[in-house]
Amino acid sequence: MNIILLGPPGAGKGTQAKILQKAYGIIQLSTGDMLRSSVASGSKLGQQAKAVMDSGNLMPDDIMTQIISQRIEQTDCINGFILDGFPRTTEQALALEDMLESSDKVLDFVIEIVVDDEILVDRIKSRVEEMSQEDRRSDDNVETLRKRLGIYHEQTAPILPFYRERGMLNQVDGMMSITEVSNKIKQIVTTV
Length: 192
Ligand code: AMP
What we know:
Structural class: alpha/beta
CATH topology: Rossmann fold
Strand content: 5-15%
Mean pLDDT: 94
CATH superfamily: P-loop containing nucleotide triphosphate hydrolases
Bound molecules: adenosine monophosphate
Distance between the termini: 11 Å
Low-confidence stretches: none
Order of helices and strands: EHEHHHEHEHHHEH
Radius of gyration: 16 Å
């Protein structure tokens, strides 16, 4: 089973992807985590990623597409995967369609976790207050979140109609508790 989780930054995609990974034995592919490992390794890609992530912008489509096209071919993706953070632009959504087709894989579900911007801003404010400096992501601050939300609405939200037209888009209210959200997602993925 191959799933895309969509939604604004801070909507809980990572948390839900981890729950799905455990429940269905499919692997979470978080492009943000992949980029953060590159940053930690100090590679050239990591240096570029750090600057881009800290500014709240997006990495170039060709780089992200290449990372994902190689990643989905690895053996741990054989039972399926949950894309968390990809695609983030129409270009990436089109590239994903091509790469799935050429590797004989299908997309089973696209799930949008819907959360109001102001709730996300409130959530980040409490996270910043609760977490120690070292546990916090360097892009965890209100200013960067607002920038990332702007980019989400401009560049990522336009891919929602792309999946809606294909009859693939499911929406889940992400303002419920973590368990309620995951129960809704489980209902969607077990309906077929
Ligand atoms: P995330 O952990 O998914 O919130 O991603 C953190 C940051 O990594 C984003 O704000 C982007 O700068 C970058 N990033 C992650 N995934 C992508 C992607 N698919 N395309 C472009 N940039 C990405």
